[in-house]
Amino acid sequence: MNLRFLETFVWVARLKSFRLTAEKLFSTQASISSRIAALEDELGTRLFLRDSKGVSLTPEGQKVLEYAERMIDTMQALKQSISDTGNIQGRIRVGAMDTVIHTWLSPFVTRVMERYPAVEIELTADTARNLNEQLLKGYLDIVFQTDMVNGDSVRNLELAAFPVRWIVPTGSLYHRSYASMEELARERIITFSKNSRPHQDILNLLHAGNVSAPRINCVNSIAAMTRLVRDGFGIGALPPALVHDELKQGVLTILDEVPEPPALPVVATWRTGVGLELSEDIIALACEALDVYAEEMGEACMARVAPAPEQQSA
């Protein structure tokens, strides 16, 4: 029995979608359908029901899933037992936007160092736009930022999203009710760097609220932005994850009465090709770190989007 077909079956069952499975496995829907059809022919039974509502397992498919998951887990355990990641050498160049640096980057890097102690990690912190340019020019291997990147031999995976909220110092002049976005925008708004994804989202939100001349202050540094909010310079449009401790201590407060800004996506983008096979495993480790971080912080601070990609032997 083809284990790759079994793995495809497991992902279709989990994601309930041939399209999402194709994206997950970096394949096509036609290829995914062909694998499932071949598996059904081999087993002599239908595994999925397909209708306008999507894809669901048949009773027989549910039985197969239990065995398939055990077989896949066994194979992964076997590969792990005979691999010697400690002897893998090389260099991985990782770029990350400030929000990632200040949240889950450290546990991610720790996982990489534990799995690949002989691999040198080079870190670059920059804006999403600059990181993407460096990736396309070949100066970086993996970047964690906000946007999908088009390019030859480049892959993208949306990993998670940071909710963004209006945050003010507790008990300050800004800590009050606002009847509309127009009223809120009369105050100073502190957000991310000019023309960044969150900056554009804030502009669009204010435009939808008929605000024509907002008082927006764009700050490149997360540390500076959070300090300005804490010191009462204005109203911050920030992910609560960046000021989790201050919110927990009651130093800062989230305004709930006005519409929330759009969430800040986290996209992993990496270069593929000969000599870059290690990147796939690094992305999988990032997903593991994000799973733990999201569970610890809760949905108010982080929403996971994607499962880990297929791991390939490095």
TrEMBL record:
| Keywords carried by this UniProt record | DNA-binding, Transcription, Transcription regulation
Give GO terms: molecular function aspect only: DNA-binding transcription factor activity; transcription cis-regulatory region binding
Q: Which InterPro entries match?
A: LysR_HTH_N, LysR_subst-bd, WH-like_DNA-bd_sf, WH_DNA-bd_sf
* Any one Pfam family match given in the protein's UniProt record, by short name: HTH_1
Q: Which domain of life is it from?
A: Bacteria
**Keyword Transcription: yes or no?**
yes
Q: Which PROSITE patterns match?
A: HTH_LYSR
Q: Is Ribonucleoprotein given among the entry's keywords?
A: no
Please report which protein family the annotation says this sequence is part of: Belongs to the LysR transcriptional regulatory family.
The protein in question is named DNA-binding transcriptional regulator, LysR family
- Organism listed in the record: Ectopseudomonas composti
